[in-house]
User: Fold this.
Amino acid sequence: MMQRRPIVGLALVAAATGMAVAARLLVVRTLDGSLLMGWPGPTLGQFRVDAVLVACSAGAALGASGAILQTLLRNPLASPFVLGVTSGAGAGVAFASLAAAMAGIAAPTGAALGVPALAGALAALGCVLLLSRRHGALDPVTLILGGVIVGAIASAGSTVAESLLPPERRGLLTGWLFGRIPDVPDAGALAACAAAALALTGLGTAWGNRLDGAALSDDEARSIGIALGPMRTAMFIGCGVATAATVALCGPIAFVGLLAPHCARALVGARNRLLVPGAALAGAGLLTAADALRQWIDVGGGRLPLGAVTAVFGGVAFLVLLRRTAAGWMS
Amino acid sequence: MVSVSGIRHSGVRVRFRSIRTVARMPSILASLATAVLLAVTSACGRAPAEAAHAPGAGSATHIVSLSPALTRTVCMLGGQGAVVGRTPWCEAPDAVVVGTLEDRDLEAIAALRPTLILRQSRTADPALETVAASTGATVHTWHFDGVDDVRSGLDPLAKLLAAGGIAGAEAAARDLVARHQQAIAVPVRSTLPVLFLFSVDPPMAFGSGTYVDDLWRAMGGVNAVGKAGYPALTAEDVIRLAPSAVVVIGRGSLPSWLGSASPVQVQVDAPDLLEPSARMLVDGPVSLHRVDDSIAAARSGG
Amino acid sequence: MTTLRFRSPVIPRGAFTLTPGEVAPAAGRVTVLIGPNGGGKTTALRAAAGMLVPEQGAILLDGAPVHSMPAAERAARMALVAQRPEVGAPFSVRQVVALGRVLRPSAPDRIEHALVRTGLAALADRPFHALSGGQQQRVAVARALAQHEPGGVLLLDEAFAAVDPPEAAALVREIRAEAAAGATVLAATHDLSVASALADDVWCIAGGRTTAFGLSRELLTRQSLPSLLGIAVAEAHGARGTIAVADYGAILPDTPR
Assistant:
């Protein structure tokens, strides 16, 4: 990999994200199949602007979380979804809906989803970290395995909560668990997600050198002066909060947290000072691009759900990534 | 927010299901865990109900219905006493819940010793056929999308019920068809394109070929959506469509942006329009006339 | 010059308890740690680095307990090379070496110097993970060399395990140069010929206790080593004195080759 100047790479990432934003704002395929370009005026344009704000906030939060997790856990396949954090947040919301149904009150919506999402996210992360400790240190292989298992259990929990819901409430949760950019985002949830994305990216950038040091083995990282324990705790909680905010805003979204850091790393390099903001930008761009694609693809049955787009493209990219990083970071 | 699964359309349900499977990667463990947990939770409710439904001398036919639309149709044809197994969404309180179309409890179904198993699907269910064969039951599968599907399905269903000892089923079927013809004979006043939504977040519409579309057009109306099936739309799509009226079928609050799509917004709580059953055939046109009245009233400044 | 002193620390480690007694590796000299596996060498090094807290006694760096020292200050005075170098991000060789100074103002000339001294200048821009095991080990040593200020403490845990003889020769030369510049070097190794070249003093730990501490010319001999390590030892004559060599042939049955 030729070392071009990393700052140029960051500019390239920003440019790509800008193009995705422009695409989402200016290009749409109407129901009758024609491609419309240009600014549609204030009424329709408001929806597009909201969609971009949501996609950028959520994508940035997921991208930054993914970059930080991949560094801290020393594993190129770490991400909020692969570690079960996203599914945990989803299960938190599912059980909150179930509790609301049993108590006879309306299900929580919008920003109120943040609390159960956060509880679920942190619980899942905690379980995965506990499961993966070998001789007091995190074992990367067990980590991914643990994440997949905790994610599957959380998913199953969501399904159970769904089935136990009375029929009239069930569709709400099912649709929500897909993950989507809402037409009219909840203002509180959007603000919280944007704030979390900015805060996490800021923290990750400020601590960029420390995160770099955490790539060494535990003993060596400590010996170069990094306070591993407090930094890991703070960053894990930060990633959990950011992921929960994303889930509260859009429902569970897969793959963005995994792929954005890799896209950024290819252009910006591995030093976290530039990688974390790069991954945040890349995540914003990827999710905005996915939503833009949704506006253009028509499979006959109307618009695809966002989850289908990210799953298909993200799934393929994940498989490619899996092959390339078969032995850790060898690629 | 309007609940999407207030609708027991197999079309919508099957489509959602297949997309969900794509979107959820670690699904095998999830299904296993769900199966275990559902088996445990469903076993709890089973024992007392079984005692109440030991086959008695009088009932010659036992029906298990895995479709709320079919359950309702059977009841309207006079067969409510014969329904022993149902889904959680069917309205037949004396029957035992045996699961849904996709997640059916084969053992519970077998234990009820049905003679008829009714389902709505585009695909076959080999496992269910095997269970049916072992208990001497027959499985009948329909698929209802449009009005014609339901209308032409009434007769065979009535014949099955009649063969199973429910007298009057065939007469009831003829009566239902006659009432349906009467109801759609009255035209609606609205001839401009109208958009029918069964969900607003995300917006999902009744497209062409669906029963609401068939009823509305049979009464002289125009559907704003030309696409077939139940397309998911974005808010922008709805606003671009600029229908003369937006009709939301279901409960829940309406988002404010609907006002930008059309000056006329009608909300109707009409469960008969959310299910392709015999009830839809006779009550559906009535509900649509109410909608038509509301549209006319709104247009004239009411 | 920094002083490192083991003041009878007691560190329980499950299978055994490390109680090395009063030991003071001298500054300006290389002390080689030898002993059987599982005997406490790594524990001693990790404890010296401040990773383990003694239940009794203390390990003192310039009179202050190591484990309670502020991390940044300790990092400037003491560098640790752990047993298996692990880098969990796709850094280049130069970036890994630079990690040694990651929390301090950058000093690119020290990093370049460390790369040159360990013979890695040509590989500096290659990805770390594309290197062989021995090369990766040299990168770890380069990082440690770039990290600590002259006259500090250098702790090496099996830094020669995967290196080939020419690479080992370069490392021996640079480590001795560090000691000559005033550093206190404590290096664990299994390789007796490396130990012979490297060591001024020898510290043997077995079962958690110090079984010997003294000059290398007295301890790395055919007479002393067998009782300390449990193997037969032969001697060779090197450029600067005798070299101890493990005599594995001594355990084979008497059959003609």
Notes: Chains C and B do not touch (no CB pair under 8 Å).
